[in-house]
Design brief:
20 strands; single chain; binds adenosine-5'-diphosphate; alpha/beta
Length: 497
């Protein structure tokens, strides 16, 4: 697949700053690579810290006007953006598959999923009201209003280049905030196309600024936002180390933070589970985006009574997965870059060295159609234990480690024995067990007898070192709003009529 779209103007090679498409102020460029082939598919600006400051200047100016808009108009802007995203869904999906590597079918699903956040927050914009508190004295009134926090810095990852951006920018606009955004260096083209559609929808200049930058310059650019008092909130999706860095560095200006960080999701199969349903759920949850999602099951615990049967069923499904570039119709695309393949391989080697066994798969995949691609064969590893790296760290690839267990207490302790707490999955048909486990698991999101979690109508987010803040749902808008209590005193006391 080459870079031909229905609308070639969606392929942007400049950043959006204050309503204008601009190069980096020092002219530096960043190459965008197709991870399936290693080919360069485009160039975008490698923006500097100075560009980052200019973006905050623009956003602050835009915020000065936008904060006074009414919810109905902000909702209308979002609905126009939503309509344009859907009208150009195929182009967005192709762009995303090219720079990210995920199968075209998954990119199409992501565009629909990301768009659902835009329409959701268009609706929520109109519902984000305040409160009236019953007064304690007849001569005063107490109210709560909600106001936009100000300029928001949105830093997004490469694994869902469209949806993560929509999930941050839509609530910011709904709330009345302005945005400075830095997409991941691996996937800047999707972000710029989304920015172009937002501009076309009528977003005022400076309301949303999207600056692309290289990995080398990411920290410098983000530091200017961290130091700048005018940036009142950071919304970040990415790794836990970078999330901690952002929390530390924003302490001086006490910004609001939404951090959606790494995970280490357990997937538990109890002996009373419907094994076919559990295998089907695991396939969906584990292999989406070749295992590169923060809610991917990273540790699979199976009761010893059904361990062998479950592994046989799982191996049959995993062994039949097809691998190839995004447009080949394959179910598993390339990993994002060479670093990602190295990590999966090192986790596998570590586990094998400590006694784990390969059931199916087990190494890099050579794709004749794309010999330079970063492919890894979907792999199941049995007899994994808690000492292995793949049990403690997020593998972020198509690797399923399976561990046997014998009691509920044991498996709950194993599942919770991690600093992370994003997603968890389990399969059981015992109603008492379902509630006991759902409540005992330390995670922000728990799927019971289901392999899917994400939807715009439910709160997405973690606990422990998976971060804080919630995206989507009726909780998501409050992340972008300040609460203000207004007390109106010394009124004439209420008189009987
Ligand atoms: P990953 O390892 O999966 O790429 P990261 O947390 O490193 O996850 O990246 C997520 C996002 O954070 C990307 O947009 C990346 O450019 C950005 N990023 C990386 N380092 C920093 C940093 N020091 N400050 C701000 N953003 C950063």
């Amino acid at each position: 697949m080459n870079l031909t779209l229905n609308r070639t103007d969606l392929i942007r090679s400049e950043s959006l700053l204050d309503g204008a498409w601009v190069a980096a102020s020092d002219g530096r460029r960043l190459e965008v690579i197709n991870p399936a082939t290693g080919d360069t598919i485009g160039q975008v600006p490698d923006c500097s810290a100075e560009d980052g400051r200019a973006a905050v200047d623009a956003a602050q100016r835009a915020f000065g006007l936008f904060r006074h808009t009414v919810a109905r108009d902000r909702a209308a802007l979002l609905m126009r953006w939503h309509a344009l995203v859907l009208a150009n869904a195929e182009d967005l999906a192709r762009l995303m598959s090219l720079e990210q590597g995920k199968p075209l079918a998954e990119s199409r699903t992501e565009v629909a999923y990301g768009a659902s956040y835009i329409s959701w927050f268009a609706e929520e914009a109109k519902r984000g009201g305040g409160d009236i508190i019953p007064e304690q004295h007849a001569n005063h009134r107490l109210l709560v209003i909600k106001q936009p926090v100000g300029v928001v810095a949105a830093i997004t990852p490469w694994n869902f280049p469209m949806a993560m951006l929509a999930r941050k920018i839509a609530p910011a606009i709904a709330a009345g905030c302005a945005v400075v955004c830095k997409p991941a260096e691996d996937t800047p083209l999707t972000a710029l196309a989304m920015a172009a559609l937002l501009q076309e929808a009528g977003a005022p200049a400076g309301l949303v600024n999207v600056l692309t930058t290289s990995r080398e310059r990411a920290a410098g650019l983000a530091d200017t936002w961290l130091e700048d008092f005018r940036v009142r909130k950071i919304s970040f999706t990415g790794s836990t180390p970078v999330g901690k860095h952002l929390a530390r560095q924003s302490a001086d200006t006490l910004k609001r933070l939404s951090l959606e960080l790494g995970g280490n999701a357990p997937f538990i199969v109890f002996e009373d589970a419907d094994l076919d349903a559990a295998v089907a759920g695991l396939m969906v949850a584990k292999f989406r985006n070749a295992g590169q999602t923060c809610i991917c099951p990273n540790r699979v615990y199976v009761h010893q009574g059904v361990y062998e049967r479950f592994i046989d069923k799982l191996a049959a499904r995993v062994g039949s997965l097809t691998i190839g570039p995004a447009t080949s119709g394959a179910e598993i695309g390339p990993l994002i870059n060479a670093r990602a393949v190295d990590k999966v391989e090192s986790h596998l080697q570590d586990a094998l060295g400590r006694g784990a066994k390969i059931v199916v798969g087990g190494g890099r995949h050579h794709c004749a159609e794309a010999p330079n691609g970063h492919f890894f064969t979907p792999t199941v590893v049995a007899d994994v234990d808690a000492s292995m790296r793949m049990s403690c760290e997020e593998t972020f690839g198509p690797l399923v480690p399976v561990t046997p267990f014998s009691t509920d207490e044991e498996v709950i302790a194993l599942a919770n024995d991690t600093p992370y707490g994003l997603a968890a999955y389990f399969y059981s048909r015992d109603i008492d067990r379902v509630w006991q486990v759902a409540e005992a698991i330390e995670a922000g999101m728990v799927a019971v007898n289901d392999g899917a979690l994400s939807t715009e109508i439910a709160p997405f987010g973690g606990i422990k070192e998976s971060g804080y803040g919630r995206e989507g749902s009726r909780y998501g808008l409050d992340e972008y709003l300040n609460i203000k209590y207004i007390r109106h005193g010394n009124l004439a006391a209420r008189q009987p009529a």
